[in-house]
Structures are given as structure tokens and as C-alpha cells.
Amino acid sequence: MPIEQKDCVEFATLAEIAYRTFLSLLKSELENATVNDISPTQAFVLLNINDNKITMGDIIQKGYYAGSNASYNLKKMYKHGYINQFQSNYDKRTQFINITDKGKQLLDILKPKIQEYAKLLENNTKERINLVKINGNIRTISNQLKSRIVT
User: Closest Cα to residue 11, out of 122, 130, 139, 150?
Assistant: First the structure.
């Protein structure tokens, strides 16, 4: 069965819905933990950075942040003590980012909650959802679409 235009639009729509739903879950968990100095979007970036030392470019290129105001959110995260920013020893134009102890403490709160959501997905569906397979398929589709972008 051939893939039609409506299938591509539905894929993008569902991906956006899944992202916004996940942000809503993060918002709920932040409120439950009475954390009010970081937004759900910023918490999402924090989850993606995890224990890595990455650059601002990495955050955007690897899809950790889909918005146009990544630098604004990173400045807020830095201001509130969730991330460190430091210059590369080799290229002063490159800023690296990593998570502070405060950021790690927040991840210690969020990660178990996300694991609970994963278990709900696994246990509350007729057929077990294989998120690894779904994620792989989405990654493949995304890479195929990216290869068509002319810059």
C-alpha cells in the first residue's frame, strides 16, 4: 500500500501531539515536585543532555530542542543553576554545556516518573508497544525527510 500525502501530514501531527503530551506530563511532574524555576521544555532539554557534555549546536542538530529560542532557554537554565556553560579549550567560539548537581537532582526526580509512564504504556495496551522499534522507525523516517532538505 503506497504512502500518501495525508500519511506524511498525519505522521508530523502525531509526532507533535506526542511531544506536547510528553511536555504536559513533565509539567505535571514539575508541579508535583514544586519545581517552578524550569519549564517543561527546559526539563525536556535537560533529560536529553543527561550526563553528556554537548554544544548548543548539538542540542539543535540532535533534536533535543525543536524551538527557535534554544539560546533563551539555555540562558534560563544556566541562570537557575541547572546547567554549566564553558568554552572549548580548542575553539573559543564553541560553548559546551553540561548538567549541574541541581540539574542532576531534578533528573533523579523525573527519570523514575518517566519510567513509570513507560511501564504504563507497556502494561495498558492490548498489544505490547515496542517503543524501541517505534523510535527506530521514526528516526528512519526523520532521516529520510532530512535528506530531502535543500539548504
Answer: 139
For the segment 92-129, what is each residue's pLDDT rounded down to a tens digit? 888 889 999 999 999 999 999 998 888 777 766 655 56
Q: Taking the model in full, what pTM does it have?
A: 0.82
Considering only CA atoms, which of 18, 23, 14 is closest in space to residue 110? 23
Domain spans of the chain, in order of start: 5-146
Fold for domain 5-146?
A: Arc Repressor Mutant, subunit A (1.10.10)
SS3 of residue 109 by DSSP: helix
pLDDT digits (tens, 9 = 90+) for 4-37: 888 888 888 888 898 899 999 999 999 999 999 9
Which residue, among 66, 63, 33, has the nearest Cα to 49 in the 3D structure? 63
Contacts of residue 90, defined as CB under 8 A and 6 or more positions apart, other chains included, come to: none
- Of 74, 83, 86, 76, nearest to 101 by C-alpha is 83
Q: How far is CA 25 from the centre of its chain?
A: 13
